[in-house]
Amino acid sequence: MKKKIISMIMMTVMATSLMACGGTASDTAKSKTVTEATTGVSGQTTATTEQTADTAASAAVSGSINGDGVGTAGTLIMATNAEFPPYEYHEGDSIVGIDAEIAAAISEKMGCKLQIEDIAFDSVIPEVTSGKADMGMAGMTVTEERKQSVDFSDTYAEASQVIIVKDDSAIASPDDLKDKIIGVQTGTTGDIYATDDFGDKNVERYNKGMEAVQALSQGKIDAVIIDREPAKVFVKENTGLKILDEAYTTEQYAIAVAKGNTKLLNNINAALAELKADGTLDKIVSKYITAE
Length: 292
Ligand code: GLN
Hints:
By secondary structure, this protein is α/β, with parallel strands linked by helices. It has helices at about 1-20, 25-40, 55-60, 100-110, 125-130, 145, 190-200, 210-215, 230-235, 260-275, 280-290; strands at about 75-80, 85, 90, 95, 115-120, 135, 150, 155-165, 180-185, 205, 225, 240-245, 250-255, 255-260.
């Protein structure tokens, strides 16, 4: 049974790779990579990831967009920050998670090989606007301000910013955060909104969300504002912390592409629509997020 599914996938892959991401990369190699990524969805292996700084750099140098909207023929380069479980995180030598698997599925639909670049979260948009990466996918919230510099795909997840405090904290709602020291990850919506609401001097910025949570555990700060799903993971990994019932914001995640790259945007949206319709998206999400 499993063999049959895999060979069917191979056929689909070979058919689609004739249509898109065409060019220089060998079809055999592409088929192999994509098949591995696909079996990852069903839980057999992890998503295939490659981090090749050289190729990312050459995309920037070439500066040209291929027929399907990618900068390097045959390869879809995704910029992310793999410190954000369950959306993207390291597992051994691979980057795994919901975004990594959705990206693998999109690449498969486009007949592209997927390459994941792990960089600081606040570098993801610059990497896309400069053309070094084709898309930014990092549990990234759609905001009006970001829309000034990138175009967003259709949204693929509902999200929210939540507040983490110590179990015995007097902070019970967002209003109680006034005059408190709030930890955030640099450049995230948690950072942006907390700075707006509570002032720069009350916001402590960290490179990784996990570092903010550890600072909270150690009593260095009073609260952390971060996306709900990573918050759940981090709270589980550190004792004595809880997530407040009242969310701080509600948001939506989407994929960022360079402004005006409608070819890639259309390809991504078409792939996302198919993945939503055939249940792949739900399957990926439920592999990483168990219903409460
Ligand atoms: N959703 C938040 C944002 O877009 C955080 C994303 C992240 O830290 N990867 O700013």
